[in-house]
């Protein structure tokens, strides 16, 4: 398996970044290869809502999403590491998700698949998240967006690992067992738990 880890927090070395590293270690432990990208390192514009993709299935914008699209559509494993900001996914994740409007158009307007048949059924996803508030409900609004994200990427098989009450940088390190859970989630993504 090739797994893409999208690190979407502006806080490098923060909670979701740490969780992502552990999950990617889990993928590697099963022989998978991994690539980690920080969305903050790329020049990504918001969706223009120009609807050009309704006709072509492609985005007219020529920015760094052109580097991310092929990876999102061809890797067997996609890991979205995105914290909760203002009760939803951090903007650094949402900007990428909005730019998948061309995938939505291709699938639902043009009635074409976005992912090649060889890998479509085998693709798996994982959402890693952390939130400061003391309630599991804090992930609910973002969950709807994450479901939509994986649907646009034609990934039916996906899991989530979320921790609330995790706020300060690196606080996840103090949550008993959390990193083991992330590691196991990576192993599962890459093919199972054995
Ligand atoms: C701009 C901003 C908005 C936030 N909004 C929320 C929120 O609505 N609910 C919540 O539970 N935590 C919120 N937090 C706290 C983060 O979710 C928390 O610190 C998390 O651990 C950050 O993960 P990271 O270290 O990967 O960036 C917010 C943090 C920031 C910086």
Tell how many strands the DSSP assignment holds. 7
Low-confidence stretches: none
Q: How is the CATH topology named?
A: Rossmann fold
Task: Give the % helix.
Answer: 25-40%
> Alpha-carbon distance between the termini?
16 Å
In spatial order, strands of the major sheet run: 2-1-3-6-7
Radius of gyration: 16 Å
Q: Bound compounds, please?
A: flavin mononucleotide
Please explain how this structure is put together:
This protein has about 190 residues and is an alpha/beta fold. It is about 40% helix and about 20% strand. The protein has a single domain (about 1-190), classed as Flavodoxin domain (Rossmann fold, 3-Layer(aba) Sandwich). It contains 8 helices and 7 strands, in the order βαβααβββαααβαβα. The two termini are about 15 Å apart. Flavin mononucleotide (FMN) binds near residues 130 and 138.
Jot down its keywords.
binds flavin mononucleotide; 194 residues; five-stranded parallel β-sheet; 8 helices; Rossmann fold; single chain
